[in-house]
Amino acid sequence: MSDAVFTLSEAVKQQILSEVPRYPEARSALLMALHHVQAEIGHVPINVQRELAALLGIRPIEVREVVTFYPMYHEHPVGKRNIQVCVNIACALAGARSVVRGLEQKLGIRVGERTPDGAYSIEEVQCLGSCGTAVCVMVNNLPFIENVRPDGLDELLRTVG
Amino acid sequence: MLERYLLPPEGADWRSIDAYRQTGGYEAAQRALQTLTSEAVIEEVKASGLRGRGGAGFGTGQKWSFMPKPGGPKPTFIACNGDESEPGTFKDRQILERNPHLLVEGLIITGHAIGARAAYVYLRGEYVTAFRTLVRAVEEARSAGLLGPGHLGSQREFDVHIMRGAGAYICGEETGMIESAEGKKGQPRKRPPFPAVYGLWGCPTTVNNVETISQVPSIIRRGANWFKTIGTPTSTGNTLYGISGHVNRPGVYELPLGTPLREIIEIHAGGVRNGKRLKAIIPGGVSMPVLSAEQIDVRMDHESLKQAGTLLGTGGIVVMDETACMVRAAIVIARFFRHETCGQCTQCREGTAWLYKLLRRVEGGEGTMADLDTINEIGGYMEGQTICALSDAAAWAATGFLRRFRAEFEAHVTGGGCPLPESFEA
């Protein structure tokens, strides 16, 4: 699907406009706005970035530099279920490397790739703030999946759906 | 006697405003707003000795006293730092998810102390459950008249807004967070001017960590003298220690500052897992230099850890057993800093990348003794040279592992690879 088909829906526009009055400057709503966009579209295509810029009264580059600075935003499509595995110290000690490798084998893709049907992608991420329940996995914008074990990946994928 | 005032007992649910009020919640805010002047609140917090729980340990009351007197030309704000991203740290999340009204009450009192118009709580984007829980608490507080115009019967207006970050560690740095909250890249600002002069939207701003603000209601309710009975003379009160890695019961434990590290590891966290021997401990998040097993009797307070050659940081303790390769631990941490450098300062942008490459080379068995010296040399260039402390942290972590476990690094060089077959993978 070409990015051109994506556009800011009326519902997302309203969500964004409801954030704006919290701040002295509309631009401050940008991070929250991008979360709303991504929740609906899954990524933040260039043309939507332009629409957002117009909505918040800033230049398109001021949106794009934010989209590309923050790891949680994706300019290009990721899998419908973007599986993010923490590989920082507590998770590494608990076998994060085996979790990543196991997911790569089961899904037939490498970190940073998407399955051909667009259903899954795998990302390595830095500390999610769940060190006491390592290995921690986050899928899209959902609450953490904690205590993931290298031998528990079938169950993980069932949970993810 | 051990007393807990930050987290509810196991199994208790304090998330609703009614449950929180039954524990005496919001009494301190009411008393502060109705009977105490701003100055009196600041003096009480100063007298308590409360130090920031975000990592730097700066005096909270002192920080507040840098703010201009209320009634100035610009509005003033609280920027509450909930961007908890320091690896090994997962304590603020406990407050946010289990006792959100404690934070809201702390914000109300802090707002009164510094005359703030509003508080902006910046939560890391990944804390989805914490975000929802806190949003609900703020809505409840607003409906109950604790926030908004004329809150708690005062003449003032004060509200709490919650915003989400998007995965950048650097936004936990106070001026990186301010830039991010303004809708920009989270690149730290040069100081001066400090946030108390030029913060959010150019207005005077106090930046406090979630746990720091959450200490305030108990100080106001029970007094500075009570607070000072907990901890050490210069590190007062309870704190939330997070403990993770190779222990039997990882988790967050609310204990006094100055608790011996041995007690936290062996008693609270149930000791090292699988009967293995302790090897290394990171005491306060990965930015803080590592300790070796022989240092386990250090007390977890600012002064004791400084004497031991490291820092308390966030109190996020990471325990590693005898199987763990110290070069790999250093690699994991160096990779993190390489990923998180914001790229503004050359020393940090280049240094983090080179530290990672050199450590990889050593781990792969292709390193030389000269590479080990180069790690120290690069670390030296990275310290004290940059806009913020990320560069220093990256340097301390790498050179800290090398200093404390030099023989193991050298064994990688002389043996042509990792001598620890059972180690975790980086």
Question: Your description of this structure?
Answer:
The complex is a heterodimer of chains A (161) and B (426). Chain A has helices at residues 10-19, 30-41, 46-56, 60-69, 89-93, 96-107, 153-160; strands at 81-86, 120-125, 137-139. Chain A is mainly α and 161 residues long. Chain A folds into two domains: 3-69, Orthogonal Bundle (Arc Repressor Mutant, subunit A), CATH 1.10.10; 81-160, Glutaredoxin, CATH 3.40.30.10. Chain A has a three-stranded mixed β-sheet, with helices on one face. The longest helix of chain A has 12 residues, at 30-41. The model of chain A has no long low-confidence stretch (mean pLDDT 95). Chain B has 426 residues and is of the alpha/beta class. Chain B has three domains: 17-228, 3-Layer(aba) Sandwich (Rossmann fold), CATH 3.40.50; 238-321, Roll (Ubiquitin-like (UB roll)), CATH 3.10.20.600; 326-415, Up-down Bundle (de novo design (two linked rop proteins)), CATH 1.20.1440. Chain B has 17 helices and ten strands. Chain B has helices spanning 17-22, 27-35, 38-48, 60-65, 92-98, 100-114, 128-143, 174-181, 210-222, 224-228, 261-268, 302-307, 326-340, 346-363, 369-382, 390-404, 406-415, and strands at residues 77-82, 118-123, 148-149, 157-164, 205-209, 238-245, 251-256, 278-282, 291-292, 316-321. Chain B has a five-stranded mixed β-sheet with strand order 3-4-2-1-5, with helices on both faces. In chain B, β8 (278-282) and β9 form a beta hairpin. The interface between A and B is large, with 47 and 55 residues.
